[in-house]
Amino acid sequence: MEFTEIGFAVALGVLLDTIIVRSVLVTALTLDIGRHVWWPSALARHEEQGSLANPESRAVTGGT
Predict the structure, then answer these.
(1) Alpha helix (H) residue ranges in the chain
(2) pLDDT tens for the 64 residues of the chain, in order
(3) Is the torsion defined by CA of 30, 23, 14, 41 positive or negative?
């Protein structure tokens, strides 16, 4: 009987984690933080390096 309750609690926790945390919270953080969500990798630095290393590119494109 006790193993059934523990198994149910674990299954419910995994289900809630999958539905709420993975689909809602991670998506919301990605929208809020933007490219910085990829902080330890080169994906976060790609946009920053392009704008800082080549300021003339913004003048040519009209600052957009």
Answers:
(1) 2-16, 26-33, 42-53, 56-60
(2) 799 999 999 999 999 999 988 888 888 888 998 878 777 777 666 554 455 445 555 555 555 5
(3) negative
- Cα torsion 36, 37, 38, 44 to 10°: value is -10
CB within 8 A of 48, min separation 6: which ones? none
Q: Which residues of 9-42 are buried (b: 16+ CB within 10 A; e: fewer)?
A: eeeeeeeeeeeeeeeeeeeeeeeeeeeeeeeeee
* Length of the chain in terms of residues written: 64
